[in-house]
Amino acid sequence: MKKFYIETYGCQMNVADSQVVARKLVENGYVLAENYKDADIIMMNTCSVRANAEQRVLGRLGLFHGLKKTKKDLKIGILGCMAQRLKEKLLEENKTIDFVAGPDSYRNISELINRADSCERPLDTILSKEETYEDISPLRFNDKNHITTFVSISRGCDNMCAFCIVPYTRGRERSRNPETILREIQEAVDEGYKEVTLLGQNVDKYNWNNGEKDFAALLELVAINFPQTRIRFATSYPQHMKDEVLRVIAKYDNVCKYIHLPVQSGSNAVLKTMKRGYTREWYLDRIKAIREIVPDAAISTDIISGFCGETEKDHQDTLELMKEVAFDYAYMFKYSERPNTYAAKRLDDDVPEEVKSRRLTEIIELQNKLSYKSNSRDVGITFEVLVEAHTKKSNKQVFGRNSQNKVIIFDGTSDLIGKLVKVKVYDFTQATLFGKMI
After folding, report:
1. How confident is the model at residue 308, as a pLDDT?
2. Is the predicted pLDDT of residue 51 greater than 90, yes or no?
């Protein structure tokens, strides 16, 4: 019985996809290896959102090339977005790779491995308009704590933002049958999971059977059916964040009070160039709605520094929007051009690298101050915390997240892991809260 090993790079969707691959292989008689050195097949499920994600994979291939010298029958596969983007080029430029599979090709993974065993170097990167893997129960081997897990509710993206490669690597949007979503969540609950994150490139646009069920209806259905399970979702898109979704979040205690709402830029000019489909004013209106309907919600965002044509005024607009919203935390990056996107084909990457870096530093410094201020407001408040694990520094301390997705560290023992406990915050840093269990 051959053993396989999967390394996962990139987003939560890739984590969930690796679980689908693992299930298909186990169903076909393969065995999951705990270490790549013990495996007969090594697969890397890859990301193409940024150039450095792809460079990490190429660097890792160097290690596996050396391993193949001692294990002649070892097969190496590239899966996911990088496979979809580069296709034949991967096989042409790197002889270490034995097979390539895009995000919609995982049903055929055993066949691809068999063909690789027969000295072929197969490739399958056909994108589907229907594939959601809704009938496959994921093998949750890569959930680190067996407490929180992910369930995909949709695949692909139709937004076509100028900078983003996702529509080209994951295809068109398609939503999954709600009954299969409920079934998969029930399986996770039966396995002992306490928290489920609903995943989609744009969860707000979930649309089953031509409007029969939208995301607000699905979220409420999940909340009602699993009242003892924490429910999160990612990622929202400002243009499609509806008040109905916010009302569901406010109505049900088990739906976490946390919303990730990427803004990317605070400048209308840059947002238009990015083809985001909304304005600064629209975004701030959605923030206002969140504050009014879910006043205890934490809000995070994504910000890109130095996009094509960004001026100093555009940059200042972003800083001002950050101050106005007062994000609890943010994911912040320099713009890096991705091949085949609208920006790569039609726009000049004209902001100098040193300017990008300086602007990014200013964004990070401001967000650090905002995060520090946000955490300072939590001192003295008691939160319900789902305990996930011991801290790296001490087996006498544990950590977990509150409904607002903030990490809280406190004294505790192993028997607390997986439980919901009340913790009162007494101290903080910009990144972490410290508390005492009540």
Report:
1. 98
2. no
